[in-house]
Specification:
The chain has 310 residues and is an alpha/beta fold. It has helices spanning 4-16, 20-25, 33-44, 96-106, 125-139, 154-168, 192-195, 205-216, 250-262, 287-309, and strands at 53-60, 63-70, 78-82, 109-113, 147-152, 176-180, 239-244, 267-272. Strand 1 and strand 2 form a beta hairpin.
């Protein structure tokens, strides 16, 4: 069950986005998207990086970002961590906690692209930028078999869709990826959209449909590069999908895992009872978050070992 501090974090998470809808619709003219995004970043920064990790601003492939650097680097392998935020909010500065934890667990640098956000830059800008970032890493001499992807929510979907885009562009694929609380289906047809309504402490179906419309604009919600449950995923490397049982995205995340498996992608699916959307942020307070991060890191390390052996 959730700790008191986890419940408090979820409440602050929800409150940080209270102005998002009214600003996007124009009903609230006293706040700006810049202010809403700053509030979101400040909220996530309640979960700071662990000791022994530093951060640097970077530009890779023409895309800005940050890199988390552990004091004790044990490998030349790297992780590309793709942040969430409904493609509308979020930036690497808010993800020092989760990226820093992965940096220490892996003993590796963690690169975070600062992709363009909707509604100013709608679909497929986020995919285009993340693909450019990945190609930039390859161009800088990082071998694909020494790279893994991970991300949460929209970033969990981007973990898969960026791989699809890379394959379609003829680029070598990373060794594997972890898709956390993935926003896998913008049609929102999974049963958990209904039976987790009011149980999910962060999301509502109406809210997700609204945010998806601001990201998609003129694209259809079933577009395979917006909703990876419909994508051609053949040939992708191993992927772990981690979902919280209490989140409305649960069924569609499980559908993504099934879709990957049916297309001969090696899949590991974890569903964590009672956990909320992207519970990993609370690794210092919630035992299930700490264990989920450790499981994800172990999975990525195995992918890297397997890729290196081929």
């Amino acid at each position: 069950m959730l700790t008191d501090k986890s419940r408090a974090f979820v409440e602050s998470w929800r409150n940080s986005l209270v102005d998002l809808g009214p600003v996007l619709t124009g009903e609230n003219k006293s706040a700006t998207m810049t202010e809403v995004r700053a509030s979101y970043t400040k909220m996530l920064a309640q979960n700071p990086a662990p000791a022994g990790v530093s951060f640097e601003n970077i530009v890779i492939g023409g895309v800005p970002g940050q890199v988390a650097i552990p004091d004790d680097i044990k490998t030349t392998d790297i992780l590309v961590y793709i942040h969430g935020g409904a493609y509308i909010v979020g930036e690497p500065a808010g993800y020092h906690g989760i990226s820093g934890n992965f940096a220490k667990l892996l003993g590796a640098k963690v690169f975070m692209p600062d992709y363009r956000l909707a509604p100013e830059h709608p679909f497929p800008a986020a995919i285009d930028d993340t693909l450019k970032f990945y190609k930039g890493l390859l161009d800088d001499g990082h071998a694909a078999n020494k790279i893994v992807f991970a991300g949460e929510s929209a970033g969990g979907a981007l973990t898969v869709t960026t791989m699809v885009a890379a394959r379609n562009s003829g680029l070598p694929l990373p060794a594997g990826g972890v898709s956390i609380s993935t926003w896998a289906n913008l049609e929102h047809t999974g049963i958990s959209m209904t039976n987790r309504e009011g149980i999910d402490p962060l999301n509502t179906k109406a809210g997700l449909v609204f945010l998806a419309s601001k990201f998609l604009q003129y694209a259809l919600p079933g577009h395979p590069m917006a909703s990876p449950v419909f994508a051609d995923v053949t040939g992708l490397p191993p992927i772990m999908v981690q979902m919280g049982e209490a989140e409305q995205m649960l069924t569609d995340g499980m559908r993504l895992a099934t879709h990957l498996a049916e297309n001969r992608v090696r899949v590991t699916l974890e569903v964590w009872p009672h956990m909320f959307h992207a519970w990993h942020f609370m690794s210092t307070e919630q035992p299930e978050a700490k264990q989920a991060l450790a499981n994800a890191a172990q999975f990525m390390q195995q992918c890297l070992r397997d890729a290196d052996a081929r």
